[in-house]
Amino acid sequence: MYSGSIYKIVSPHTDRIYIGSTRSHLRKRMYEHKNRQSVISSKQILDAGDARIELIERWEGDNINDLRVREGVLVRENMDLCVNKRIENRTSAEYYQDHKEKICKKKRSSYVRIRDRERDADAPPYAQLQRYYDNKEDIKRSRVLGYIKMYKRRPTQKSVDKYQITEDEIQKMLS
Predict the structure, then answer these.
(1) Assign residue 2 a region: left if phi > 0, alpha if psi is -120 to 50, beta otherwise?
(2) Which residue among 40, 84, 105, 118 has the highest number of C-beta atoms inside a 10 angstrom radius?
(3) Is residue 96 situated within a structural domain?
(4) In angstroms, rounded to a whole number, what is the distance separating the alpha carbons of residues 99 and 113?
(5) Are residues 78 and 20 in the same domain?
(6) 63-85 burial, b if ≥16 CB within 10 A, otherwise e?
(7) Partners of 76 in the beta sheet?
(8) How many beta carbons lie within 10 A of that of residue 7, not counting itself?
(9) What digits encode the pLDDT tens for the residues 115-137?
(10) 101 in a domain, yes or no?
(11) Which structural domain range is residue 136 located in?
(12) Residue 45 located in a structural domain
């Protein structure tokens, strides 16, 4: 039988909250949040000042994953207030639906049309394709070297000649 706590971190200076779960004492968990070096969701609340940790509910069960599932349920119920970026037990499809606009915007920005130069009919319309065409031979050469290392096999003589691969490079990849 496992036991744990589901808690929230709040501050009087913001309406936002952070919901989490732990099997350790709440005081210890708050200390861990405050002393974490990496950027975490709760940092928004902690930076607001006078943050405190409050128990939402005690939990007991046979499977520790059920604690995380319950945490995910509470985060979903309070989505408008939560700063949580990761929601326990959320599928990738649910993540996509929650962040669809942001994901699509990011994808569109990586395919920015090239407007700064005059394009002819053969020019690729997207920046990533342009980068590929500008570096095509280097990319293919790197790929051949990667295959040598991955499969631990010598390349064909045709590849050696075409991409000017030296014997030293081959030996380095094979070792």
Answers:
(1) beta
(2) 84
(3) no
(4) 24
(5) yes
(6) eeeebbebbbebbbeeeebbbbe
(7) none
(8) 22
(9) 444 555 555 566 777 788 889 99
(10) no
(11) 127-174
(12) yes
